[in-house]
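dumping the sequnces here before i forget
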Amino acid sequence: MSDGRGNGLLVNLDSVDKVFKRGSEEIHVLGGLNLGIPRGEFLALMGPSGSGKTTLLNLVGGLDRPSEGTVEVGGERIDKLSDRKLASWRSRHVGLVFQFYNLLPVLTAQKNVELPLLLTNLSRAERVRHAAIALDIVGLSHRAKHYPRQLSGGEQQRTGIARAIVTDPTILLCDEPTGDLDRKSSDEILDILQALNREQGKTIVMVTHDIHAASRATRTLYLNKGMLTTEPEE
Amino acid sequence: MKYFYLVWCNLRRKKLRTLLTVLSILVAFLLFGYLAAIRQAFNAGIDVAGADRLVVRHKISIIQLLPETYESRMEQIPGVDNAMHMTWFGGIYQKPSNFFAQMPVEPEELFDMYPEYLISDEHKKAWLDTKSGVIAGRQIAERFGWKVGDRIPIQATAWTHKSGSETWEFDLVGIYDGAEKGTDDTQFFFRYDFFEESRAWGSGLVGWYVVRVDDPQKAAETAATIDAEFANSPRETKAEPEGAFIQGFANQVGNIGLIIMSIVAAAFFTILLVTGNTMAYTVYERTSELAMLKAIGFSDRGVLGLVLGESFLLAIIGGSLGLGLAWILVSMGDPTGGTLPVFFFPVKDLLLGIVLIGLMALTAGILPAMQAQRLQIADAIRR
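..and the predicted 3d for all of it:
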């Protein structure tokens, strides 16, 4: 994937509006938003609840479409892709980390990490190998055969990160990755994310309420009433 | 196949619920399979009835007898190739529950009229040589452990022996097999000449006639000609194709096919609701997981396929077990001990069962699967 159109940006959102309809009511979540994210950046998005942080993350990850404006990732207008192509694009380019981990309880950590690889042409042995490497990166090799219910919150989130990075995605999108964890586990997760950014050059966008978590990012933006700022609103 | 593990694990998520659903499906298909065998048994003979054979009986009822002399008159009617008579003996072997058909027939005619009854030349010759000889079907012989050479006493219920005895003794001289799966090989044929000279009453009277016509296309026409031949006589006839005759016999019990199909349809409808409810609930409680799968790149169709896969796996497990169990139970034989001599699980019903498994899976799974397909990731992921 290239770095966009020569402007050095991996992600480029231009004049993005997002309007949700609830019955006859229209809720404007994002209005005329512009955002550029260079490759290799670790960006933290902060803001009050309902400010549109997750909506913005969803737009960058191709989980949702803008009402107006363009979303370009790696030079590709993902807002123009069909549902099928967008799903395929996500499988190749996006790694997602969720606040509540969203692991399948019926699968072991190893099998959960293998899930995105089912969409590739890798053989079973290769899938196992890739998942083992991803689990090793997050320091969870010894828990590979354990089910989510047998793992602590921090371990589950580390499994979630392993699942997100197993396909070596272009960008890692994290929605409150430490929101459900205690301080110690949060630090472990943030250490991993920071290492992925610094050592492997992963571009990361992290939505968080936690100033401590945001401090690990290379840049922090604040979202309020659909607008991005570099400083929190007083 | 790489998704099979995922589908399988999802079914194992709520083991009790899956088990109960599988059992429900199993019962429906067990019922389907077993009732299919019963329906087949009631219709036995219709499928293998000779298209070129007519049955001619007394116009009033099959229990009214016809003169033996009708045979030669029938054989002179244009369109009739051959005619033979049969008579219901209705005897008992050892105890009343040992029910099977015994009939005096003309031995020279039987195997010509019924080429689906297969017998060796040796056994056929032995029958022609032995006046008290009897030919039994393979199934009935095996049921009672009879071997060629055995002397078989039959207790008469209507045809008293000339000696005043109710017991008739026969010598088993041969065993016949059925050419087809549906051929009745539970019958017991003995010689008419032996019957005629030994019976205490009814001399010269027979039960009904089986007539082979030259041209099956003209069977109805020939039947009408036969009935016209004996019209206005003291013993008028009713001729009809063999299949219609057997169907009419079965219909005396009621429309078995309709009754059985109604039971099966009710069972299937109920199980469809149970399975559909299971699948709908499965999707509902896994909304966020399905959304996660879509988020990481599973396509809408992929998610649809996963949910349908669960529905199919559920139906295949339950349906296959049900059909398999039905097969085993049917293989154990006629549950009535003789009333349903041709009792087997027809292959066409087995194939229909397999089609029904697919239909049930599709019907039960399609709506929940489409619901999963339409999930909006952003909304569903946080549920």
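The helical segments of chain A are 53-60, 83-93, 109-114, 124-137, 153-165, 183-200, 211-214.
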